[in-house]
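#onboarding

Welcome to the new folks! Below is a worked example of what a typical request in this channel looks like: someone posts a single protein sequence, and someone else replies with the predicted structure as tokens. Don't worry about understanding the tokens yet, we'll cover that in week two.

Example request:
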Amino acid sequence: MDDLDEILEALSAGWTAVAAKVATIWTPIQIALILLAALAGWAVAAAVRKRFDLDKLTSPWPTYPRIAARAAVHTLGIIIAIVLLLLIRVGMQAATLPSRSYLIGVAANLATAWVVIAILASVIHNQLFNRLVAIAAWTIAALSILGLLEPVQEALDSAGILIGGLRITALVAIKATALLLLALWAATALSNFLERQIRSYPDLTPSIQVLLGKLVRIGLITLAVLIVLSSAGIDFSALALFSGAVGVGIGFGLQKIVSNLVSGIILLADKSIKPGDIITLGDNYGWVDTMGARYTSVVSPDGREYLIPNEDFVTQRVINWSYSNERVGLDVRFGVSYASNPHHVRDVALAAIATVPRVLNAPAPVCHLAKFGDSSLDFALWFWIGDPIKGVGNVRSAVLFALWDAFKREGIEIPYPVREMRLDKGVTMVVEKPG
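Example response:
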């Protein structure tokens, strides 16, 4: 309690010292000069942007210099206001007491800190994370400029709770959160860079590339978390209390998540499924787009994207049309009238399928007489395609259209069942005349 009273007294003394510097007739004068400098900076920046397309001028630059330059352009009004404030302060210090330009100096320092932080944070592509980093960094800079950083730190660290041998205060929580966000961003950016490097090696299969990328990402994120916990002063032995609860949570609540994660690693390791494969799982048909830690993305020929849990690929029957190669064998069955010459039908069918662009010439299509049906000669036409990623049903449709056109042209009849109706007893029909 005494520590808290001392901290409050220090904050009160600091605020009193700041108030003493600004509680004069020069305070409204300085505020007016600050507003005039801000207005002039905004007007000059608007005129410069209207006259020059600065974004277009920086477009040929490398990525990070271009991003930093565009961030500077967006804060051009503040930069001009800073220059004006510094010139005003130099003039006032030369003409009068330094204390009479205190607010102008504080405003210039705060604006400078905001510009520098905005330019440095612009390299962070995530807008939410960018804003959080910029606001947090500027808050710390502002407290430091006003001389309130140490009292605020002491106030945040004055009260805490003990969990085992671990003392948690508001200051520790804020530091750990900030460091964790920064470390996770750095680990994610580094893992993305390493994944791009891994994908650039053609000697590695797609599944191995994805597996290595996932392992690198998991390893870097784990390392980042451990470093943050260690730097925040958290003793790992103090976390032993929670290990049993975490184990129970994984055993019950996170059972499916862990199962999908392990299944994803198994799929990548045994190479049974890899990006680019054409697969059928239940009613879902398409090609594998991405393989994540929890699910695999399968894109159907109509553009729909199915997010299928990795566990389904391990526990269910999967058809991989391109497991060993891209060639896929298909068949089309049809029947013709008994009046047709089966040798001629076979030749016509093979000539017709040769006109379908997606049908491969090697292996060559074959046409077999499958059986003598009840009302037709039944044939099976077998052929191969090399691009199942473009769909299977559409090529079957193209083959059937080619057969229909060829049979119509050659006069080959496709029979249809004929039904006979027999009446065992006579039927009396009564016709009533109207009216």
